[in-house]
Automatic annotation (TrEMBL):
UniProt KW keywords: Membrane, Transmembrane, Transmembrane helix
Stretches assigned to the DUF1707 domain: 12-64
Keyword Membrane: yes
Name recorded for this polypeptide: DUF1707 domain-containing protein
Keyword Transmembrane helix (UniProt): yes
Transmembrane segments: 111-131
Organism the protein comes from: Streptomyces azureus
Pfam families per UniProt: DUF1707
Listed InterPro entries: DUF1707_SHOCT-like (IPR012551)
Length: 149
């Protein structure tokens, strides 16, 4: 019986870090009320004695992924926001290339038209960074937290 999220290799011996990660999942399940204290204690003991990945996978196979912590979510949001800026930069290079090619064909510098779409795109990315984020899942945007700091 393997963990549904990531198949375990039965013959692979686990490290103390692997055991600690499993204990963290079990502790989160206890805190959420998914495990009662007795079952948590029994699974924790088995996790501490586990020698292979298969033994650990069995202990958490019936538990959902724990929700990310606020700091983990903040890091994920920042990575996504920075990725959007990389897309913006790629768009700037492409549009500037098109503009430069047209200028070379005409033999004169013309209005830098990429400023308009790039400006709107940048404004949206900045608004995403400062707009309150929905933290309660209701879609109402009542978070008050910024994405990038």
């Amino acid at each position: 019986m393997h963990d549904r999220r990531e198949p375990a290799v039965p013959a692979v011996r686990v490290s103390d870090r692997d055991r600690d990660e499993t204990l963290g999942v079990l502790a989160a399940a206890l805190a959420e009320g998914r495990l009662d204290p007795h079952e948590h204690e029994m699974r924790s003991r088995r996790a501490l004695r586990a020698r292979t990945a298969d033994e650990l996978a069995v202990l958490t196979a019936d538990l959902p992924e724990p929700a990310p912590t606020r700091s983990e979510q903040d890091r994920r949001d920042l990575r996504e926001w920075l990725a959007e800026w990389r897309y913006w930069l790629g768009g700037a290079v492409i549009m500037s290339g098109i503009w430069g090619t047209r200028c070379a064909q005409k033999g004169e510098l013309t209005y830098y038209w990429p400023a308009t779409p790039l400006g709107v795109w940048a404004a949206v990315l900045i608004a995403i960074a400062i707009w309150p984020r929905d933290t309660d899942g209701s879609g109402e945007g009542s978070g008050g937290r910024t994405v990038a700091r």
